[in-house]
Design brief:
About 65% of the residues lie in helices and about 5% in strands. The protein is mainly α. Strands 1-2 form a two-stranded antiparallel ribbon. The longest helix has 30 residues, at about 55-85.
Length: about 230
């Protein structure tokens, strides 16, 4: 903790997370940014093993850990892109794709979701004779906006990012249309949408919102009560 909490304050300032201690000695790290949480978790584990917990040492270890996580994200981004079959992407985009390792959507990890969606979409594209390369790009980047900081939906943030990197217009349209925010402009766009829906909706893929779950149970109960016997 440090004198008057100085170590905790230094750790929070260096990592950008909030730290809570409970009576059982459990340390909770909270932040909306899952990458920051991961950096904080790794740095804290190092500090506990190191035992020299003081502001200067905290800054030093957090800085080291940030570099480690940056390297991991670049490697994970390259691995994801290559597994989907997309090569020669800018380093900045690869690092952003690597953030998927630490990002979930309704409990579904974004790397696993992207791979699952891509596999389905590529098979569909081959069956229908669609442009497989555009489908690959559309699947790879459809959720990129979820790891972009800024105002607006993840669809808008993703489209703006891809335009900045001069990605093919057909691939950008796949991202722009994957939640039907605008009408489909191509068969490739429809394929990305369908594959995304399949991956997100399959049983066990995502945690279900409790209110939606309760509503579904009530609806089922009403259906049952409407029938005699």
């Amino acid at each position: 903790i440090g004198k008057e909490g100085r170590n905790i304050r230094a750790f929070e300032q260096a990592t950008g997370v909030d730290v809570d201690l409970d009576e059982e000695g459990i340390i909770r790290i909270s932040s909306f940014d899952q990458v920051r949480r991961e950096i904080a978790r790794r740095a804290l584990e190092k500090l506990i093993k190191d035992t020299r917990i003081q502001p200067f040492r905290i800054e030093e270890l957090v800085s080291q850990t940030k570099q480690e996580v940056e390297k991991i994200m670049l490697e994970e981004g390259e691995k994801l892109a290559h597994e989907v079959g997309v090569f020669n992407l800018p380093l900045e985009l690869l690092k952003m794709l690597g953030r998927f390792k630490f990002r979930t959507s309704y409990g579904q990890n974004l790397i696993l979701h992207t791979l699952e969606e891509s596999k389905n979409a590529i098979n569909i594209a081959h069956e229908l004779g669609a442009d497989v390369d555009i489908v690959r790009l559309g699947c790879l980047f459809h959720d990129i906006g979820k790891v972009v900081e800024g105002e607006g939906s993840h669809v808008k943030l993703g489209v703006d990012l891809l335009k900045r990197f001069n990605m093919p217009e057909a691939a950008i349209n796949c991202v722009a249309e994957h939640h039907e925010d605008k009408p489909f402009s191509s068969i490739e766009s429809v394929i990305v949408h369908i594959a995304d829906s399949i991956s997100g909706a399959r049983p066990g893929a995502r945690h279900e919102d409790i209110q939606e779950y309760a509503k579904r149970l009530r609806d089922m109960e009403e259906i049952a009560k409407s029938l005699q016997g």
